[in-house]
Specification:
The chain is an alpha/beta fold. The chain is built from four helices and four strands, in the order αβαββααβ.
């Protein structure tokens, strides 16, 4: 497993904190090896496999990690991607890469989640707290 229990808890808490301020959804998927030529292809596949395209505002984001093949990607649905573009995703990937290379992956992922959450909040602010539905589970998915 790439994360300790404490790191898992911190990542899930960061997802929940980010999602409280937005209608957007963030998920993290971890597996050993990426079986595609490019990790973004696998991220897109997982995004669809787990129904992340079903969010009402098309504002789901997946952080994909292939631990043993040292690959990762970020996949944002159409609603958020058309607002932030490739430059934003590239900046978040650079941030994550920096921390992953220092073997501080959980910290890098949490920082990326916070920044993604800020963009989601900017473009998709949360409804009233009792109407802000959590459309997708927050737990890390291990494949």
């Amino acid at each position: 497993m790439i994360f300790t229990k404490d790191e898992e808890t911190r990542i899930v808490q960061t997802i929940r904190a980010a999602e409280r301020r937005t209608s957007g959804e963030i998920r993290v998927f971890v597996e050993d090896f990426c079986d595609r030529d490019h990790p973004v292809e696998r991220a897109a596949e997982i995004f669809h496999l787990y129904g992340m395209f079903n969010t009402q505002a098309k504002n789901g984001v997946l952080i994909y990690l292939a631990e043993k093949s040292h690959q990762f990607a970020i996949w944002g649905d159409a609603g958020i991607h058309e607002r932030v573009g490739f430059q934003f995703w590239d900046a978040e990937k650079r941030l994550m890469r920096e921390y992953l290379q220092r073997d501080e992956g959980a910290t890098g992922i949490c920082l990326a989640i916070e920044k993604i959450g800020e963009k989601l909040r900017e473009h998709f602010p949360a409804a009233e707290s009792d109407k802000n539905v959590n459309e997708l589970p927050d737990e890390i998915i291990y494949g």
